[in-house]
Amino acid sequence: MEWITRIKAFYHRKLDGYTFEEYLIMFVTCSIFLPYFCSVAAIGFTLGYLAFTHQLVRIIRQTPRAFLAFAFCLLSFIVSALYHNSIGMAQSFVMLLIFVYYMFYRSIINKRLLILLIDACCIISIFCFVWAIMEYFRIIDHFDYSFFALEVEDEPRWRVNSTFYNANLYAMMIEFLVLCCVYKLLYSKTLRRILFYWCIIILNLFALYLTGCRTAWLSFVAAIPVMFLITRHWRSFAVSMTLIGGGVLAVLADPGLLPRSGFLDSFIVRGRIWWTAILAIKDHLFFGGGPQCYQLFYPLYHGRRARHAHNVILDPLLSHGIVGVLLILSYFWVNLKEVKRLYTERYDVPLFALIVAFLLTVLIHGIADYTINWIQTAMLFLMVFSASAIYVNNGGQPEREGNTGMSISEASER
């Protein structure tokens, strides 16, 4: 049949011509959208293959400042052990696996592969949406709500989280996925592809509403207009600012338009957590207490019970101290310089815009939560952030098609 022939042609056009190592990266990327232990297993399998084929040591040696990542993870593990922080010890080991995997990823990534990975993430998000809707039907059946009432409960277990550990983590994944769709829309030429990415954005935004995560909406206010501004899409920038302005006015007029609209109560709770974290940071300034140590320290300060410090600045300082934070920032410094060159040397301005948008999302969402400190969210972030290595792999030069970024989209449409 004709449709089977077309599917086969699409499959071969998209997936033919890759190396086995590139297929491994596709495999690990797809695992991000399964329960978190699947991602750990996928990374473990990949690193096992690299060790078996004698590639792993070479990759580590070729990675700039790799020893800093190892030092960071070792320090984190030792400090966690000293405080009998078993969760921190386990997380330190998983962080090491993720860092080593992304050393491999950086050595392999190229423009064609990156575009395929972004498209794969956008497509898989549809299945995450379907899972979320199934969860929502279970929730409304329990509370006897109507589907169109769109009621979102405060209690975390009654908010949709799809294949992710909790609703706030799913919300951050949605933020990243929407930004990926906007990135693809920047240079999509055909109406079919434009409608495709817009449909994915709408589905994900509906799922975002059902997560009940309010901070996620704030990140779009900054990240999306900044992407248009950097890439000089002036008309899209003006339209986005108009829509954002209208949305802000609507929410101010009727705060009930956003789910779980009790902002003040939430920030009072967050304030108690932050103050407890600050007190603990003072007493553990240099080395912290290991990942997730807030759970160990809050009883000592009669603080609010929580899993972590709910802030992207406070929690790293509490967990890793000044020494640990400086180690990991020093490791990523090379990556940051690569990102800067994407713009200053005009290697890939759209990719630069996407990375900046991801960073803004982490910082803005991180005001009230620490959702980047999770396997799936961290891996999707690093997939895009580490893509600056494309131009290192290409000898530090733009690829043959040009440096405007249009070739990326055009290649994906062929």
Automatic annotation (TrEMBL):
<dbReference type="GO" id="GO:0016874">
    <property type="term" value="F:ligase activity"/>
</dbReference>
<feature type="transmembrane region" description="Helical">
    <location>
        <begin position="317"/>
        <end position="336"/>
    </location>
</feature>
<feature type="transmembrane region" description="Helical">
    <location>
        <begin position="374"/>
        <end position="392"/>
    </location>
</feature>
<feature type="transmembrane region" description="Helical">
    <location>
        <begin position="113"/>
        <end position="134"/>
    </location>
</feature>
<keyword id="KW-0436">Ligase</keyword>
<feature type="transmembrane region" description="Helical">
    <location>
        <begin position="23"/>
        <end position="52"/>
    </location>
</feature>
<feature type="transmembrane region" description="Helical">
    <location>
        <begin position="238"/>
        <end position="258"/>
    </location>
</feature>
<dbReference type="InterPro" id="IPR051533">
    <property type="entry name" value="WaaL-like"/>
</dbReference>
<dbReference type="InterPro" id="IPR007016">
    <property type="entry name" value="O-antigen_ligase-rel_domated"/>
</dbReference>
<keyword id="KW-1133">Transmembrane helix</keyword>
<dbReference type="Pfam" id="PF04932">
    <property type="entry name" value="Wzy_C"/>
</dbReference>
<feature type="transmembrane region" description="Helical">
    <location>
        <begin position="216"/>
        <end position="231"/>
    </location>
</feature>
<keyword id="KW-0812">Transmembrane</keyword>
<feature type="transmembrane region" description="Helical">
    <location>
        <begin position="194"/>
        <end position="210"/>
    </location>
</feature>
<protein>
    <submittedName>
        <fullName>O-antigen ligase family protein</fullName>
    </submittedName>
</protein>
<feature type="transmembrane region" description="Helical">
    <location>
        <begin position="89"/>
        <end position="106"/>
    </location>
</feature>
<feature type="transmembrane region" description="Helical">
    <location>
        <begin position="348"/>
        <end position="368"/>
    </location>
</feature>
<feature type="transmembrane region" description="Helical">
    <location>
        <begin position="167"/>
        <end position="187"/>
    </location>
</feature>
<keyword id="KW-0472">Membrane</keyword>
<feature type="transmembrane region" description="Helical">
    <location>
        <begin position="64"/>
        <end position="83"/>
    </location>
</feature>
<feature type="domain" description="O-antigen ligase-related">
    <location>
        <begin position="200"/>
        <end position="329"/>
    </location>
</feature>
